[in-house]
Amino acid sequence: MHRILLHTIVIDFPPDVHDAALGFWSAALDANAVQGTRFPEYHHLSDAVSLGRVLVQRLGEGTSRVHLDIESDDCAAEVARLTALGATTVERHGEWTVLEDPSGLRFCVVPAEAEDFAERSRVVG
Amino acid sequence: MHRILLHTIVIDFPPDVHDAALGFWSAALDANAVQGTRFPEYHHLSDAVSLGRVLVQRLGEGTSRVHLDIESDDCAAEVARLTALGATTVERHGEWTVLEDPSGLRFCVVPAEAEDFAERSRVVG
After folding, report:
1. CB half-sphere exposure, A91, CA atoms < 13 A
2. Which residue of B has its CA nearest to A10?
3. Given A4, A6, A21, which is nearest B102 (Cβ)?
């Protein structure tokens, strides 16, 4: 038994449009873009007018897209649960896993770090 | 002056994968899929373990993707604000407008209907 929460929306942009798109979404959501220190390819749209957390990621290549991050206090158990439901693991980076749903849509399972995780998450599995 | 809130995540699927993907995301987010009556191409993932509302849409064609809905109490003013920030209007369906950000990423502006809109939204513009 472990806990999960769909907590974060990540808006991904290739390098040529990243800066314009980051500026647009910061203004659109009335937020301050704060660049990550450990992972500088991410900006957190701090204080965005949004129910969930919003990140903007600079991709190395590819096209603009949105992906979802499911937080969990037991990522291995959550990846196993989602795989049993029909997802496929694409890449693992430590505790952070990229998966595809049955249609090929990519999403991630990441360690819980939300301040309100305990309050807002739910037991699954 | 009007209010906005990034409230809803919409996961879009083409017809051939819609049913499998709807089943997957309902189970993944421990939710009940409730089909819309006015717009039966949408299912609301009721009681999803998510900070925001999650909808699944059956597309007529295209590829799997996630798009974001910004709610507003004045959609025309919000579309005008976002257009001034660099967005482009793609389609209008009454008060519901499809836009593209400066990178071509599609999102929507829709009328406010969240129960907590007054509490969680913010004045912009």
Report:
1. 5
2. B66
3. A21
Contact A7, A53 (CB under 8 A): yes
pTM of the model: 0.95
CA distance B24 to chain A (A): 6
CA–chain centroid gap for A30, Å, is 20
Q: ipTM greater than 0.90, yes or no?
A: yes
Chain A residue with the nearest C-alpha to that of B103: A17
* Nearest Cβ partner for B28 among A29, A82, A121: A82
pLDDT digits over B42-92, tens only? 999 999 999 999 999 999 999 999 999 999 999 999 999 999 999 999 999
